[in-house]
């Protein structure tokens, strides 16, 4: 069977980094990584990009170290298809300012061992690369200078710097490859994908499958509304503003961030740009125009500010598209059950740390910060029992081991993203009333959740994996080979 070709659309924070490492560690017979398209998300775009470069830096050092000590080099997919193209996406959502999970991921997205670069809005890809290099070269932090400056200038680098905006790079790959041969793995806000779909819908529809870490479908499973005892004791929890783009610091935010959620009913990736997610999912409908999100007018106060960049206007899709998009969701319902336990990580890394593995040292540092954050914010969780759901990793596992019969995927659910709710922004609305779908060529409906007209989204959803119990061990074994 031919390897699955993937594009990873990512906002590199903790679980993205582990997901990318898992992908790069796969067998080249199973997986080929064509592109890493970076978006804002967990933290601002420049820090996401810096984390991606850091990943290649440590993998480069790791391969050299493994060679020097006579170990298997690993990272077969990466070594067989390097350099991987890294492209730069937008700095903010389609409709609003970026909402970021920087509290949980640290200001650099990896628990805080680096300096923050700050935001440089509205730069071209070339300007963004240049800015990243200038910051590194003038940095007083030797580690940052070494990682970014050396890695960006290294001709034997494992990655190349694309000067093309990420959504155009995605379209180029879809044009240049056989239809139905590329899978896009979306593990950040979906702004890049929405831009690509709007730019050239028919080329976008050449994608084989879009695998998304997003959604929280079954509200009965949602414990975010059950606060821990520390929350009850917290004084003066700030009231969220009406246009909620970021949960204010405090116990609620701690609690939601642990679940990769920014609102009680929404996962972070969807919450961060619900209009982008909704626009992509409409392409799964037989009649996308019936489920397109509203285009929101700007509030008056924002219109009057001259330094606020105009929002991108994206057109509707043309009628009579040639096919429907194939999307498979990995919502928090399933990703939240796949946990990396501190005990497993430490047991796996201990001999590698003793032997000075560069990758083990890096992963150990940012995972320690992550575990410590959870212990400090979670009553009843101790140092020894703590684990962290690494949501994004599950999507890559699915792409690598797609032939495992134990994956359980429910098909064709009408799930729609709420884009305008005051309290429900980014929530998935499921129409579960029993109804019989008509064929794709049914009469036009208005797309409302009234049932029976055959419109609506048709999303596939992962409801079972090959095993929660084997997940953490498998992840560590594939990345570290031990
Ligand atoms: Ca992510």
Outline the structure in words:
- The chain has two domains: 4-222 and 262-300 and 310-341 and 388-480, Inosine-uridine Nucleoside N-ribohydrolase, Chain A (Alpha-Beta Complex), CATH 3.90.245; 231-259, no CATH class.
- The chain is 38% helix and 15% strand.
- It has helices at residues 14-24, 45-68, 76-81, 102-105, 125-137, 142-153, 166-176, 191-199, 201-204, 229-233, 251-258, 268-272, 274-282, 300-303, 332-335, 342-354, 358-377, 393-400, 468-480, and strands at 4-10, 31-38, 84-88, 159-165, 182-186, 209-213, 261-263, 266-267, 327-330, 339-341, 387-389, 408-413, 415-417, 428-430, 459-464.
- The strands form four sheets. It has a nine-stranded mixed β-sheet with strand order 4-3-2-1-5-6-9-15-12, with helices on both faces. The protein has a two-stranded antiparallel ribbon with strand order 7-8. A two-stranded antiparallel sheet has the order 10-11.
- Strand 7 (261-263) and strand 8 (266-267) form a beta hairpin.
- The longest helix is centred in the N-terminal third of the chain and has 24 residues, at 45-68.
- InterPro entries: Inosine/uridine_hydrolase_dom, IUNH, Ribo_hydro-like.
The assembly state of the depicted protein chains is single chain
The small molecules bound here are:
calcium ion
Compute the CA-based radius of gyration. Answer: 22 Å
- CATH structural fold name of the largest domain: Inosine-uridine Nucleoside N-ribohydrolase, Chain A
Structural class: alpha/beta
Overall body shape: globular
What order do the strands of the largest sheet run in, or round the barrel if closed?
4-3-2-1-5-6-9-15-12
CATH superfamily of the largest domain: Ribonucleoside hydrolase-like
**Uncertain residue ranges:** 113-121, 220-246, 297-304, 436-452
Family: Belongs to the IUNH family.
Organism: Hyaloscypha bicolor E
Keywords: Glycosidase, Hydrolase
Domain Inosine/uridine-preferring nucleoside hydrolase: 6-439
């Amino acid at each position: 069977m031919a390897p699955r070709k993937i594009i990873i659309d990512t906002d590199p924070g903790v679980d993205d980094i582990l997901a990318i490492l898992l992908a790069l560690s796969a067998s080249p017979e199973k997986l080929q990584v064509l592109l890493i398209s970076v978006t804002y998300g967990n933290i601002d775009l420049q820090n996401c990009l810096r984390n991606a470069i850091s990943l290649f830096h440590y993998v480069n050092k790791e391969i050299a170290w493994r060679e020097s000590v006579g170990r298997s080099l690993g990272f077969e997919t990466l070594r067989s298809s390097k350099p991987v193209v890294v492209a730069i996406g937008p700095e903010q959502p389609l409709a609003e300012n970026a909402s970021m999970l920087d509290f949980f991921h640290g200001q650099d997205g990896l628990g805080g061992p680096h300096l923050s670069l700050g935001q440089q809005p509205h730069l071209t890809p070339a300007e963004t690369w240049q800015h990243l290099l200038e910051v590194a070269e003038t940095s007083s932090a030797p580690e940052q200078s070494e990682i970014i400056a050396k890695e960006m200038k290294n001709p034997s680098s494992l990655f190349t710097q694309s000067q093309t905006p990420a959504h155009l790079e995605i379209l180029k790959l879809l044009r240049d490859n056989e239809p139905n041969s590329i899978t896009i793995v979306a593990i950040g806000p979906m702004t890049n994908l929405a831009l690509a779909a709007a730019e050239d819908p028919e080329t976008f529809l050449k994608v084989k499958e879009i695998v998304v870490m997003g959604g929280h479908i079954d509200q009965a499973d949602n414990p975010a509304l059950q606060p821990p005892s520390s929350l009850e004791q917290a004084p003066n929890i700030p009231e969220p503003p009406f246009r909620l783009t970021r949960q204010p610091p405090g116990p609620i935010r701690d609690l939601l961030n642990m679940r990769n959620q920014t609102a009680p009913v929404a996962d972070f990736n969807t919450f961060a740009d619900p209009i982008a997610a909704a626009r992509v999912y409409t392409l799964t409908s037989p009649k996308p125009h019936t489920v397109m999100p509203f285009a929101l007018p700007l509030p008056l106060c924002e219109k009057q500010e001259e330094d606020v960049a105009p929002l991108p206007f994206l057109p509707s899709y043309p009628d009579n598209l040639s096919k429907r998009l194939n999307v498979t969701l990995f919502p928090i319902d399933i990703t939240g059950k796949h946990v990396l336990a501190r005990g497993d990580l430490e047991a796996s890394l201990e001999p590698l740390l003793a032997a000075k593995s560069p990758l083990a040292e890096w992963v150990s540092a940012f995972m320690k910060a992550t575990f410590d954050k959870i212990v400090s914010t979670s009553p009843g969780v101790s140092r020894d029992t703590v684990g962290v759901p690494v949501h994004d990793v599950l999507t890559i596992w699915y792409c690598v081991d797609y032939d495992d019969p134990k994956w359980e995927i429910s098909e064709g659910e009408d799930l729609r993203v709420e884009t305008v709710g005051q309290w429900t922004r980014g929530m998935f609305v499921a129409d579960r009333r029993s109804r019989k779908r008509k064929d794709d060529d049914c009469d036009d409906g208005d797309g409302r959740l009234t049932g029976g007209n055959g419109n609506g989204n048709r999303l596939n959803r992962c409801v079972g994996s090959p095993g929660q119990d084997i997940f953490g061990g498998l992840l560590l074994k594939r990345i570290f080979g031990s």
